[in-house]
Backbone:
């Protein structure tokens, strides 16, 4: 609390009871440069175009939230559409739930995978997903068996 007081942040309260930010006070504005905003908007646009619907929705929500908290003069950087990724191929439709996979990674759940390889052999495994990565438009998964 000494550090908070040194920053002159108006907080009232006491130890072991709790603290409250005083009325009329607010958190400082999100301070991003135009380049940082453009990077965030471009990244969000790429995510919205390349991943499962729930994460795509979250990426669009991020852009919407950014546009409400940044200074008015920087809003065109996020909203003008110039940071949209160029699509060179049609998006591949997949049959697995990316939201479920991301949830399993965050919560460290194991998943049962049942899949058929190129030769028609069916495999059943219990795995712990570790990460999802992209290289270009190809998605890679890392599992621990």
Residues:
């Amino acid at each position: 609390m000494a550090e908070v007081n040194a920053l002159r942040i108006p907080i009232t309260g006491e130890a072991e009871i709790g603290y409250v930010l005083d009325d009329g006070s607010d958190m400082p504005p999100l301070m991003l440069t135009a380049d940082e905003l453009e990077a965030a908007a471009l990244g969000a646009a790429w995510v919205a175009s390349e991943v499962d619907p729930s994460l795509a929705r979250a990426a669009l929500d991020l852009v919407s939230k950014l546009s409400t908290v940044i200074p008015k003069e920087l809003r065109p950087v996020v909203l003008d559409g110039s940071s949209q990724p160029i699509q060179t191929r049609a998006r591949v439709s997949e049959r697995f739930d990316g939201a479920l996979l991301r949830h399993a990674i965050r919560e460290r759940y194991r998943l049962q995978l049942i899949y058929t390889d190129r030769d028609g052999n069916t495999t059943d495994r219990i795995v712990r997903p570790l990460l999802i990565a992209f290289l270009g438009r190809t998605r890679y998964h890392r599992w621990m068996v």
